[in-house]
Design goal:
Distance between the termini: 71 Å
Oligomer: single chain
Helix content: 25-40%
Radius of gyration: 23 Å
Structural class: alpha+beta
Largest sheet: 5 strands, antiparallel
């Protein structure tokens, strides 16, 4: 029986499993401190209104986030004629988190206002090996994060793609200027 193909697969599995431990070691020895340091530097140099949070409840699945401020939304619930309660706007979050295999996932959590609809689902930006994560990549992701949140904050229907039905029509009504 020729087991050479299976032997190759077993060696590949062993390499992948060894990489997982190397990736976790890299996170603990270098990446965690580097991500925090870059976030701190960007907050200080640019005036980003946010804070750094570390979720280390599960070793090997830690996360570091740049969380934008949570504040009153400017929307109020009327409790009585003279009493109202501010709805809270939870800020956006950019998170670098360890995956089960030691690689690093990068995602955006969008802002939301409590009690008003459902929050937009998080957007996964990228999964990288620890050796691929450099300061310049973190800067690029923070720039993308700020762009995404700016677009969310500045939402209007001019940015919503509309599917046309028929020639130059939307839902049977011709749009102005078309």
């Amino acid at each position: 029986m020729d087991t050479s193909n299976l032997t190759t697969k077993v060696l590949k599995l062993s390499t992948v499993m060894n990489n997982t431990q190397l990736y976790r070691d890299n996170w603990n020895n270098e990446l965690k401190a580097m991500i925090i340091s870059v976030f701190e530097k960007l907050i200080e140099e640019t005036g980003i209104k946010g804070e750094i949070t570390v979720n280390d409840r599960f070793e090997g699945l830690e996360a570091i986030s740049l969380a934008l401020d949570t504040r009153e939304s400017g929307i109020y619930e009327r409790i009585t004629d003279t009493t109202k309660r501010a709805l809270i706007r939870n800020g956006a979050i950019l998170t670098y988190h360890q995956l089960f295999n030691g690689k690093i996932g990068i995602l955006i959590g969008f802002p939301y206002i409590e009690g008003i609809g459902q929050p937009k689902p998080p957007r996964s930006l990228e999964i990288v090996r620890p050796e691929e994560l450099k300061e310049i990549n973190i800067l690029r992701m923070v720039e993308l994060f700020i762009d995404e949140i700016t677009e969310w904050e500045d939402f209007d229907d001019d940015k919503v793609s509309v599917h046309k039905i028929g020639f130059n029509h939307v839902s049977g009504v011709k749009k102005e200027g078309e």
